[in-house]
Amino acid sequence: MFDSFRHSTSERLDRPKYHADFRRHYEGGIRFLRKLERGQNFKERGFPSWESFVIGDWGRALPLIEEKRPIYGSQFQKAAELGILERRLRVVEFPITPYVQWEMHVLRLRVELGDNIRAIDARELANIEGDHLVPEVVILGDEVMYEVVYDDDGNAAGANRIADKGAVGETSSGFDALYSRGEDFMTFFNREIAPLEPPATTH
Predict the structure, then answer these.
(1) What confidence tier does 201 reach under pLDDT thresholds 50, 70, 90?
(2) Which of 13, 52, 59, 201 could potentially form a cystine with 18 if both were Cys, beta carbons 3.0 to 4.6 Å apart?
(3) How many other CB atoms sit within 10 Å of the CB of residue 128?
(4) Angle CA(69)–CA(71)–CA(74) in degrees, nearest 5?
């Protein structure tokens, strides 16, 4: 699974070029967006909720997530207008990292607004991953996919663009297979995330 992804030729795009290329394809008639999120620690500089979380102010971090409601709502409205079905699969390792604990609260808001998110325990991927983790990838229809790239400090740094139709198709099939095994987001959230104590500061 995902073999062609690892061996495909890609073009490295910095963040502005990635965002521009993404928008061009997103608005160009695709019908599906698939996102597979595997990393357990990222940085979201500029997002007030994350900034509060990272200094240990959990009581402020959670309410600040609501600032994203109109932004996410507009995104989903645009997807509906364009006829795009968006699906996301979040891989979660145990013990759950502070970042993922925080992010799952963000994803809960997205689900409330209509996002199609499932969660999967990383231990269920043991027979798939072997020497390679499943990719951190965004797939737009059958046209193009992006391996999202982060710097050594966990900051978004652009993407590797892959346009080989065969690789896109195989990666989409792999995503669909894992997504079908994923758990309903709110079921997972209520069982694994809601009971957790506030995470220790990561600053």
Answers:
(1) low
(2) 13
(3) 14
(4) 105
Q: Are residues 91 and 123 in contact, defined by beta-carbon separation less than 8 angstroms?
A: no
Q: Quick one: which of 105, 113, 36 has its CA closest to 80?
A: 113
Residue 92 structure tokens: 């979660």
Peptide bond just before 199 cis, omega within 30 deg: no
Q: What is the model's pLDDT at position 130?
A: 85
Contacts of 39 (CB under 8 A, 6+ apart): 136, 150, 154
- pTM score above 0.90: yes
* Residues in a beta bridge with 117: 88
Dihedral over Cα of 135, 107, 100, 17: its sign = positive
pLDDT digits (tens, 9 = 90+) for 122-150: 999 999 998 899 999 999 999 999 999 98
Nearest to 5 by CA among 36, 32, 40: 36
Tokens found for residue 154:
């966990």
Give the pair of three-digit tokens for residue 32. Answer: 């599906």
